[in-house]
Design brief:
5 helices; alpha/beta; 6-stranded mixed β-sheet; globular; 22% helix; 264 residues
Amino acid sequence: MKVGFIQMKPKLLDLNANLSKAERLIKKAAAGGAKLVVLPELFDTGYNFESREEVESIAMQIPDGETTEFLAELSREHGVFIVAGTAERDEHGTLYNSAVITGPIASGYIGKYRKIHLFYREKLFFEPGNLGFRVFNIGMAKVGIMICFDWFFPEAMRTLALKGADIIAHPSNLVMPYAPRAMPIRALENRVFSITANRTGEERGLRFIGKSTIASPKAEVLAMGSEDKEEVGIVDINVKEARNKRINEFNDIFKDRKPGFYFI
């Protein structure tokens, strides 16, 4: 199957502009044959908020908000599964840094993940996720979702892999330089594919590094974006490679685990 990232520069607090840009790039990815595409963290809202009031003004419920409905419609129209980061406001007004997954099914909406490891000033606006790490079966593959800073904690990706994920979708707004180098190793440790979709540009003095990355179960960088351009990266992968956890005739990375010796 073909999978891809969408690297874009969201405009802070401008929903219409961001959805319009995402639509153009999603159509480009679908035209290129991608069956699964990943968009950045908070692709529809921008990232560097100054106040909780700003987040409240643009956060929406999932799945009934405009962003999820927009993605669901694109999934149905173009036959593509989409994972994208968005600001969520639940029925009680609690705010989460979330991601949704949509697909070419009747309802369009498949599920959501709420970011567990909040980074820096995100803690001023969002609550830590309370849904756990989730894996979604899209038929051709099982997709686990984590968001940006979650990558810094090896347990996140390992949990998704142990739950059966073949592909880790990783919407991101990376500002530190490490993830493009580290994610191929995370993919190797768990023998999965990873798709990191990062954003570009600068927002209120905060610069994002681009370099969206697709990595293989052998730590190969299959595609990497530029530091500053909006672009779509598409590669063809063999999902079965993620289901073979053996590295030689004697070693299986999951069967060889010794949880009883690991510190909690």
